[in-house]
Design goal:
Blueprint: H1 32-47, H2 51-64, H3 69-81, H4 85-97, H5 103-108, H6 119-130, E1 155-157, H7 164-186, H8 190-207, H9 210-226, H10 230-240, H11 244-247, H12 250-256, H13 267-280, E2 288-292, E3 303-309, H14 316-330, E4 333-338, E5 341-344, E6 347-349, H15 354-371, E7 374-384, H16 386-397, E8 404-408, E9 429-435, H17 440-455, E10 459-465, H18 476-487
Parallel strand pairs: 1-10, 3-4, 3-7, 7-8, 8-9, 9-10
Antiparallel strand pairs: 2-4, 5-6
């Protein structure tokens, strides 16, 4: 389920007909309030697994916003959850035609678990990967500057090349080969498909990029299975399960993937499934947080607060290490929060139930406010990577709570157009940081975020680091301190 128009209900976590109280035909002049009501109805019905009611709300949203690709994507999700595969494909293909381009989300969205292993689904993914996205900067901001990196607020620092150019080139070539592999497999020319899979696998090993190595190793398992090379297929399947970032969603992929039908009865196949279930099948927990008082803290003086969110696979200690210098530099109480979902021993992620995250993060803040003397007008939320994505979402959802936001290398996902009607957004100060060699979606959506927040009246500064990929910036202590001072207007 896409959250950009449904408050990002529970993306990557798979969750009849309750009555619908809104007319199927939108009223003349329907506006943000109508959309917000429908989004809430869809969100609530989805969370209750009432997919028919959620579908009715999604269809009404589509009538209000007929060109919105995310609404089409949501309709596809709900048809799939209702077992209506043909309808799911129809709306998924419409969404791509209308501009939906998040292949990473599509490949991992559990709403499509039952069709993820099918050739038609792979064709949709391949189409997205092959589309020319030359108009990325104009997604929904026609008339804006093509690149906000040149704004007067933007600033670049020089950094030597790190070899990421070569890795990116290898990644693009692997994507091309994956498309060819699928074409050969669709024609049942499995020998050619295996040859292409082998070339892609060799390039992935050369790249050293774990997700690509996991993907190409899994593809080697599939092609060998189709050729009834059972031992080779299982060898590659066991190897693919060792790549943590890829293996997290591998259990569902294996269960629905017809390419592996020739090895399902082998005990080694069952052993891989059990290993994945044990390692990645842990249930979500509640958020945990730790409070760190700044050096030279004075209990009598109201202190600002910095809420720090770790990246995917991080923990509280990592958040403290990243942000303690900046917090000390401005005398801020640091609240380091741990995500609710354990992905490995001691490693956590945030999930995508932003409703629950919002409630629990604000509860943690309230608890700190009760125990310490706090300047409630100076609360900042910051994070890196997935933590930055969550920080963006919290600032948009509750701008009255925060004075500023420091997202580092995160993706910005618009939940609802109506969210940007909140006048409190104009009081926010943002310091956005990312590398110019990060993935395309990070570059594009951070530029989009800067434009949207500026239009809402917020004060925005962007700093782009040359030669930096998906990493924390160099001299991170000084960079985070500078950013925190900016958003606190010091």
């Amino acid at each position: 389920m896409n959250r950009r128009t449904a408050n990002r209900i529970v993306m990557w976590v798979a969750l009849c007909g309750a009555p619908c109280f809104l007319s199927a035909q939108p009223a003349r002049g329907a506006g943000p309030e109508d959309e917000a009501k429908l989004e809430r109805k869809m969100r609530d019905a989805y969370a209750d697994a009432d997919y028919m009611a959620a579908l009715e709300a999604a269809e009404k949203l589509h009538k209000l916003r007929p060109d919105n690709s995310d609404d089409m994507y949501n309709i596809a999700c709900l048809h799939c959850l209702l077992g209506q595969k043909d309808k799911a494909y129809e709306w998924l293909e419409k969404a791509v035609e209308a501009g939906y381009d998040d292949a990473a989300q599509l490949r991992q969205d559990p709403d499509f678990t039952v069709i993820r292993g099918e050739d038609r689904f792979r064709r949709v993914v391949r189409r997205i990967l092959r589309e020319d996205r030359s108009a990325d900067d104009n997604d929904d901001d026609e008339g804006d500057d093509a690149d906000d990196d040149d704004d007067e607020e933007s600033e670049r620092t020089e950094r030597p090349a790190t070899g990421d150019d070569e890795r990116r080139r290898l990644g693009e070539r692997i994507n091309e080969l994956t498309g060819k592999l699928i074409e050969h497999a669709e024609k049942k020319d499995y020998e050619k498909a295996l040859n292409v899979a082998t070339e892609a696998h060799d390039l992935a090993e050369k790249s050293g990029i774990p997700p690509l190595r996991g993907l190409t190793t899994y593809n080697m398992a599939c092609m060998n299975s189709l050729l009834k090379n059972q031992d080779e297929a299982l060898d590659y399947l066991e190897a693919a399960a060792e790549f943590e970032g890829f293996a997290r969603g591998m259990e569902a992929q294996m269960v629905s993937d017809s390419d592996l039908d020739n090895v399902r009865d082998d005990p080694r196949y069952e052993k891989v499934l059990k290993t994945l279930k044990k390692k990645y099948g842990k249930k979500d927990e509640s958020l945990k947080f730790e409070v760190r008082l700044p050096k030279n803290y004075q209990e009598s003086k109201a202190a600002p607060i910095l809420i720090a969110l770790h990246p995917y696979g991080g923990d509280i200690d990592e958040a403290i290490a990243r942000w303690k210098h900046a917090a000390d530099g401005v005398g801020a109480i640091l609240i380091a929060i741990r995500g609710p979902a354990e992905v490995d021993e001691g490693k956590y992620q945030w999930g995508n139930d932003f409703d629950s995250l919002e409630t629990e993060i604000i509860d943690a803040l309230d608890e700190v406010i009760e125990r310490h003397k706090v300047d409630e007008d100076r609360v900042v939320i910051a994070g890196f990577s997935q933590g930055a994505l969550v920080a963006y979402a919290m600032a948009v959802r509750a701008p009255e709570v925060f004075c500023g936001l420091v997202p580092v290398g995160g993706t910005f996902r618009l939940e609802s157009e109506s969210d940007f009607d909140d006048e409190d957004l104009g009081d926010l100060r943002l310091f956005i940081m990312y590398g110019d060699e990060d993935v395309r979606n990070v570059l594009r959506t951070n530029r989009q975020a800067a434009r949207r927040f500026k239009r809402a009246g917020a004060t925005v500064e962007t700093k782009v680091f040359e030669g930096l990929g998906h990493e924390f910036p160099p001299d991170s202590d000084e960079e985070t301190l500078r950013a925190l001072r900016f958003v606190l207007d010091e």
